[in-house]
Design brief:
The structure is a homodimer of 79-residue chains.
Chain A (H helix, E strand, L loop, with lengths): L1 E8 L6 H12 L5 E14 L4 H16 L5 E7 L1
Antiparallel strand pairs in A: 1-2, 1-3
Chain lengths: 79, 79
């Protein structure tokens, strides 16, 4: 079974990477870009499991490895 | 207006980062993980534009900066 985990910075957490991208976009003449915030996406293939078990396992994966829960949020989608 | 750009590796492109994550998950006793592929997600805030113009601009941003179109695919969502 397939799942997608999206990990993004929490609001208020500074994103120097995003700032650098805004600068680069500006130097490429893209006007009107107010902000960019970069995150990570993980496409995961798991052995088949009941949905609730899969969600629980994926949540544990996020809590332990995929996300730094101090500064990041995560979102789990079963595909 | 807000948009989300998701950039993922094309099929067949090796993902050493993803492989390392599979190994780490295994060492954390997560069983049944067949594969992990890591990508990037950009949450962009733009000045208001007609949707078609915004999509065109975002496509250009991907082509020029946000994605390496030789090895990556990108997906644009207007939120």
């Amino acid at each position: 079974m397939k799942a997608r985990v999206t990990v993004t910075l929490k609001a208020g957490v500074l994103d120097p990477q995003g700032k650098a991208i805004v600068g680069a976009l500006d130097s490429l003449d893209f006007k009107g870009v107010q902000s960019v915030r970069q995150g990570k996406v993980f496409d995961i293939v798991l052995d088949d499991l009941p949905q609730d078990k899969a969600k629980k396992q994926l949540t544990e994966m996020c809590e332990q490895l995929l996300a730094n829960t101090v500064i990041e949020n995560y979102q789990i989608e079963l595909l």
